[in-house]
Amino acid sequence: MKAILMTRPGEPELLQLAELPEPSIADPGQIKVQIKAAGVNPVDTKLRRRGVFYDGALPAVLGLDGAGVVVETGAAVNRFKVGDKVWYCHGGLGREPGNYAEYTVLDARWAAPMPKSLSFEQAAAGPLVLITAWGALYDRGRLRSGQTVLIHAGAGGVGHVAVQLAKLRGARVIATVGSAEKAELATQWGADEAIDYKNEDFVAAVNDLTGGRGADLVFDTVGPEVFRRSIECTAPYGDIVTLLDIGDTPLGEARTRNLRIGFELMLLPLLRDLEDARLHQVEILEQCGRWLDQSQLRIHLSRVLPLEEAARAHVLIEGGHTSGKLVLVP
């Protein structure tokens, strides 16, 4: 089969098309999937640049998100049959091969039925960002109806679904974006207000929009400086949830405001083999699939590229100029 190999950490051009043996089912609970599309996420670019999570795992196939067709099932599988369409978040961290390939094998428990209304490309763009946004807003952030949430990078891969999930929970949504075009997109996805952080101080804007109180929940997808400044526009007793390491960010003002600080690393269940948490992630995909089929949720595709252009996809993501998601098609 064709696959994209990472042979060592480095620049995007190190990702090379290669011919590998097709994987085989090794456990009665597994399914073999012909991958029709693979999502590309910022974590893929970080792993390519710094190395995968497991020693001695190179060469490796990256890519956590996949969508495809079941072509074989293990003897103990009754959840799926040959011909079923599935989507999932699995592999790509170094231990199991990822989805920049034509085939994969995974435990049937970690896949969900693909939403009927989606193309393979749209489905492959969804799992990681939906699980991440759900975990940050609903699980870590405890978002409730009537609250105000600030979502940073509201037109990005995680941000654009976070805006929609927050609206589905009945929240008022303020999103930060980097251009007028992205502000329009965020508004289309449901944001009540969009702040162009390049031309406006988002802290002052949020405080102004909330009568000086601040947002009840802040979702940081950017990094330490944005996290630090967000403390100043979070309401007393509010929550800040971040996807990133906050380093040595001073937390005096957060303490003064009695803020709860949460971290959302959706990779944790995969890295630590937390079975219940992985099953929860599949439940998230099942519920989001229902919302997608009911047109209550949308996945925005920025670009679809052939598998052999994986390096170009990484360049586009690292350039920071995309909205929504990028997908590779074998």
What does this structure look like?
It is built from 11 helices and 15 strands. The longest helix has 19 residues, at 275-293. The model has no long low-confidence stretch (mean pLDDT 97). Strands 3, 4, 5, 6, 7, 14 and 15 form a 7-stranded mixed sheet that branches. Strands 10-9-8-11-12-13 form a 6-stranded parallel sheet, sandwiched between helices. The radius of gyration is 20 Å and the shape is globular. Helix 3 packs across helix 10. It starts with a strand and ends with a strand. With 330 residues, it is of the alpha/beta class. It is 31% helix and 26% strand. The protein folds into 2 domains: 2-126 and 273-329, Medium-chain alcohol dehydrogenases, catalytic domain (Quinone Oxidoreductase, Chain A, domain 1, Alpha-Beta Complex), CATH 3.90.180.10; 129-263, Quinone Oxidoreductase, Chain A, domain 1 (Alpha-Beta Complex), CATH 3.90.180.10.
